[in-house]
Amino acid sequence: MVLAPLRPALGDVEVVPMRRRHLRGVLAIERVVYPRPWSPGLFASELSQGDSRRYVVALAPLRDRPAFEVRALGRRRVVGYAGVMVGAGEAHVTTVAVHPEEHRRKIATRLLLGLMDGAVELGADAATLEVRVANRGAQRLYAAFGFAPVGVRPGYYAETGEDALIMWAHDLRTPEYAAVLDRQRARLADPGGASGAPDHPVPWVVGRVGLPDDSGAPGAEG
Question: How far apart are CA 54 and CA 184, in angstroms?
Answer without folding.
Answer: 20
